[in-house]
Amino acid sequence: MAAQRLFARMLAHTFLAGELSIKEITARSTRMLGRQWRWLNPLARRFVREVVGQVRPRHRDVVRFLQQDQGFQEAWVKHRRRLFIAEWRTDSEPMSPVAAAASWHLPSIESVGDLAHWLNLTASELEWFADLKGFNSRPDPSPLSHYSYRVLTKRSGKIRLIEAPKTRLKKLQQQILSEILDKVPPHLASHGFVRGRSIRTFVASHVGHRVVLRIDLSDFFPSFRAARIQTIFRVLGYPEPIADLFGGICTNAAPRDLSRKPPFDVNPDDWRESQALHSRPHLPQGAPTSPALANICCYRLDCRLSGLAKVAGAMYTRYADDLAFSGDREFEKHVERFATHAAAILLEEGFHVNFHKTRIMRQGVRQHLVGLVANDHMNVIRRDFDRLKATLTNCVRHGPASQNRDAHPQFRSHLDGRVAFVESINPQKGARLRRIFAQIRWQ
Q: CA–CA distance from 443 to each of 400, 411, 412, 418, 438 (Å)?
C-alpha cells in the first residue's frame, strides 16, 4: 500500500503539471513512465470527467482519486513490477498556468527557495510571514503578530474589523499586488478598486433607467477563505507549495479573544458571530492585496450575473460588495423574479445576501447607489451635501478644530477630498462648497 501511494503521489504531479486535458495528461504521464501504457488514456478521461467545471484540484485530492479509481487499482496489481518513474523532479515544479494566464507575464517561481529569493526573505522568515500553522491566531498574540486591529460598529449594529498589516508584511503584499495581481485583468462589470474605474463609472450605467435593483453582500472580505485564495494562485500557475505560501501571506486569522468584551452598542450574538467569522483564515479588510484578490474570486460570479442580466435586458455592475442592475420597461415587469434568480446565483457562489438592504427602486423614488443618485442624472444625495456644507460653514464660524469630532490627523485634507468628490459628481454644487472651504482659517 505504501508503494502504491508513493506511485500515485508522483503520478498526480503529472496530472497537475499543465492544462487539465486528456491529451496533455496522457502525454505527460507517458514521458514520466517511459512508455505509453494502455490504461493511461482511460484513466485521464475518468479524471477529467471527475474535475470538469471545478477549479484546479489540490495534489492530495488527485492522489485520493487515483487510489480510489478501480482502473488504476487493476493496473497497479497487474503491472506494478514493471512500473517505474523514468523522469522525476523533486527540487521544483514547473509553472503551469491556465490558458488565459499564459499571456499575463507573471514572475516564474517554481520552488520555495525561488519565492524566498523573490520576496528577499530567508526560508524561516517566509514561513513566519505565511503563518500556515496559525500561530498569530492563538489567544493573547505577541507584539510580533503581523496585524493591528480596529473594531468599528456599522449603523446596522454589526461589526467591521479593520485588519491592517504591519510594515514588513504590507511591503510583501504590495509586491505581490504590483507584480502579480495587477496583471490579472478584472471583469468589465467590476468597478471597485480597479484602475480607471470608480464609484462614478459604477453608477453611470444605471442613470436614467426605469428601475434599479440594488443587492448588498454581507461580510464581503471575510467570506473569502484561505483555501479559495490558494486556489487562485494555483490557477495562475504556481505549484501547490508556492500557492499555499502566497495564500498565507495574503490571508489572516484574527485571535478569538481580540477583545473579550463587545462594544456597548453591539449585540453580544453579533459579536460572537463576528469573532467566529474572523478567527478562520480569510481576506483581511485593510490589506493591499485583498481588493484585487476579491475581484479575481468574483470573476465567475460577474460572468454569471452579466449573462443573467443580458438575457433579461438589464445592465449589471459591481462595486466590491454592492451589486446594481437596471433596465427599462421589460426588465421592470420581471424585476422581482430576477432578484430571486440573482440571489440564488450569489448563494451558489458562496456569498451571503443582505436581504434587508436589497432595494427595487423605480422612477417614482430616489434611485441611489453607493451614496449617489441615479434618477435623471448623477448627483450627490442632498442630505449628505447639506451635512458637508454645514460642517464647512461651522469651520468658518468656529474654527476647524470644533468640527473634527473624529480626530482626523489630516482634517484639512479630509475635507478637501470630500469637496473634490462633490466637484467630480456635480461641478456647480462642488464650486459652492469650494468657496466656503476657501474661507476656512487653518492654523
A: 9, 12, 10, 20, 14
